[in-house]
Structures are given as structure tokens and as C-alpha cells.
């Protein structure tokens, strides 16, 4: 069984097996249980509907367009908020999109994954979205034992199990039982700045991004390009096969930077219909968001995740010569996730440890300006020198960072709101 996106089937790479050294032993451990939900094509191929009743429960990636904040409800759809008054976010709507994890927007057209399909949605009337095109089976990696059913999302719950050492799952951080995935709660993680007003801004975990007249999408093994000069009518143009473990995409000038769990791919985008691979920077196996500013790329690597990594660090890479990227220096971190650049600073999410503000004016001598704790944070978007978006398992935060030593909370959208 193979499935795309953030989920349980990408966790197979994390399976490890340990032998028992004693005749009798047991352990009590807390796990997060993921129970897959399947649908028929007829069930998820419905026109997008909007409602105002769904609460934010399991936040995924965030995206900002005009004055609107979009927060993905993992596998279920998109929450829409009006941030005209940044101190008072107003919930406008929820777009019901089964199997949705990623979006991008151009000229009031939202592009969203809908299980195995790609859909274009007219959001000119933000409260009344209209499906204007559906590209069926754009993502052919959803396969189930029953060919009539397709994986859409998983229901998450916390469980406690007592495992005897004779149990095949003893000592494993990830295992599968009766079709469900169980992940050690202590070790699982749940992600392009473009200032043009006709497109939006995503975080560093983005798999969808818009560059001029093209939409680029990465799945776990490829990079796809779509012509969107007519935004409501995306046209497939090209696929670059990259191998397994592809995670994120970040456009910068005439380049595309693709993060994988084993390295960073650099593409020349001067022929936007068919980007050309220039080089690859390899690193130890780990989850890999990447952002770029001028001649420097910043990559976070972390352990205890679905990517089965064993290190926690920020890699700083010289890309002056994009054909030969070179590591400048690695900086140890607690548990780095997503990141964003602004005005000589990196805002870096650290999961349960909150986030850090780093001075990166000299990439070879990065130092910490401050850290914010007591929140969970897995990604950020730096909108300006003053405005920072932060998202984590406990919700969404807006910070004023005009004084980077003392970021101040401007507003919050908590889960279950």
C-alpha cells in the first residue's frame, strides 16, 4: 500500500527492529494512533462546499493571500480567516476538501489537492468557493487493497500501550497494527515568499508554489509543472522524476530548490515549463525544509521524525556556484522544523521548544538573538520586518518582531476555536 503526503505510508521508512535481550520484560509507552479513512472517488469528487461550523482541530500548512489566512485542516479542507485587523482574526469559512494538505493561489484561483485529484477553485467570493476545474488522478500514488477505495486522511488519537519484550513491536517508535499506524508520541512531527499581490505566500513546508504563469507541485517522488496563464484552466506540462523522499519546494529568482529527506535539489527555472536539474546537495537522512536568500541556502535537519533522522541542526550552504553547492557550517539546534528569512534574520521553528530568532548576517557566524518558548511551532512565514506568522500543533500566532529581541504576540487562533 503506497500513499502520498504527510502520512502513515511514508512512515514505513522509519521502521526499525530491535531484539529482546531479556526473557521477561515490558514497557508502558504513549503512542499517537493514526487510523486511515478511505473514500470512493464519488465521495471525494464533490464540488467544494463552504461552512462556518468546523473548528480548527488538526492544523497543517498555512498560506496567506491578500488579507486572507488559509490554514489546512489536515486531510479535510481549509479554514479561511480575514486578517484585515491583525489583532482580531475573523473566521469566514471552511472549505470542505477531502484529502487536502496543500494549496497555492493566483488571481483568486486556489489550487488544492483533493485526494488523488488536483482542483482549481474560484475564491473571488471568499465565502462561496466554486470548483472550476478538476484534473483527475494527477497524483497516482494512492493505492489501496480495494481498488474502489482511496486513502484520504487519518484520524489521530493518543493511546497508551503495555508492550511485552516478546511483542514484535517492543522498542519500535513506529509500527503498524490492523491497518493503523502507531507512532511514539515523543518522536513524531507534523508545512516562498512572493510579494506579488496576485499570488500568495506559503511556509517552508510547502509542496505547492506559484511562479509567474506556472504552478509547481512536488509529491514524494517528483516535481510537476502546470501552465496557469489562464488561472482557472491549469494545463499539465512536465514531470521531473526525483526518487523517493521529496518533501518541499522553494522558488527563488530563476531557481527552484526542492528539499528531500536525503538532500537538496537545485533546478534552473529559466525554461519554466520544464525545469532543469543543476545539482544536488546531499546530507544525512532527515526531514529537510529549505529556504534561500541571495547566495545562501538554509536547511533544517531533525531527528525523531517520520524521516528517521538522527541529528538536529541547521545547515548553511553556499550556492554562489549552483553547480557545486558547498556547506559553510552546521549549527546544532534542539529540534528544528520550518524556517523563514527576513532582513538578516532567520526565524526557526523548534517544535515543542517554540522558535528562535537568529542573526544570519554572517552565515559563518550565526548567533541567537532570542528564543520564544511555551508554544508549539513547526513553521513560519515572515511577511515583513515587523510581521511574523507562526503555526504549530496548538494553533496559529501572529507576532510583531520589529524588535527581534522581544517578539510580541499580536493575535492567536487556538485549536478548537
Summarize this entry quickly.
By secondary structure, the chain is mainly β. It has one helix spanning 41-44, and strands spanning 26-39, 49-51, 59-65, 68-73, 77-82, 90-96, 103-106, 109-114, 117-122, 130-135, 150-164, 174-177, 180-184, 201-202, 208-211, 214-218, 222-227, 235-241, 246-252, 255-260, 263-268, 276-282, 290-293, 296-301, 313-318, 326-332, 339-342, 345-349, 355-359, 367-372, 379-382, 387-392, 395-400, 408-414.
Terminal residue distance: 35 Å
Question: Kindly state the mean pLDDT as a whole number?
Answer: 83
Spans of at least 5 consecutive residues whose pLDDT stays below 50 are 1-23, 185-196
Instruction: Estimate the helix proportion, in percent.
Output: under 10%
Q: So what's the overall shape?
A: globular
Strand content: over 45%
Please provide the count of β strands.
34
Radius of gyration (CA) equals 21 Å
Mind describing the biggest β-sheet? 6 strands, antiparallel
Structural class: mainly beta
Instruction: State the strand order across the main sheet.
Output: 2-6-5-4-3-14
User: How many individual helices?
Assistant: 1
